[in-house]
Amino acid sequence: MSKFIEGSLVRCVNDRFHDESTNPFKACDLNLPIEGENYTVRDVVDTPYGIGLRLTEIHNKSYYFDNIGEWKEPIFSTSKFEIIERKTS
């Protein structure tokens, strides 16, 4: 279970993004979080590669991911964020 939950407030602690050959997009094509800025978790996504986040303040278009055969909005690794305030149920 992820310590990140929808509605929690997070801060970006690492805004360095590198292109990966397996991604159907380039980092320069995305709206990206900025180090030191706060964001609200919109969605928590469990993948075979780890947990990823989508943020309320940042939206990107969907891309077709060959490995899952679906169109999805990219996610950001939880390693790029720290929790500031965890939403409680």
Notes on the protein architecture:
With 89 residues, the protein is mainly beta. The protein has one domain. The chain contains no helices and 7 strands. The protein has a 5-stranded antiparallel β-sheet with strand order 6-3-2-1-7, with no helix packed on it. Strands 4-5 form a two-stranded antiparallel sheet. A hairpin with a 4-residue loop joins strand 4 and strand 5. It is globular, with a radius of gyration of 13 Å.
The radius of gyration over CA amounts to 13 Å
Question: Order of strands across the widest beta sheet?
Answer: 6-3-2-1-7
Net shape: globular
* Percentage beta strand: 35-45%
Sketch the major β-sheet. Answer: 5 strands, antiparallel
Q: Oligomeric state of the chains?
A: single chain
Number of strands: 7
Mean pLDDT: 92
List low-pLDDT spans: none
Report the helical percentage. Answer: under 10%
Q: How many helices in DSSP terms?
A: 0
Domains, number: 1
| SSE-based structural type | mainly beta
Written as H for each helix and E for each strand, in order along the chain, the element string is EEEEEEE
- Note the gap between the termini: 15 Å
Question: Which labels suit this protein?
Answer:
mainly beta; 7 strands; 89 residues; 5-stranded antiparallel beta sheet
In short:
The protein is mainly β and about 90 residues long. Helix content is about 0%, strand content about 35%. The radius of gyration is 13 Å and the shape is globular.
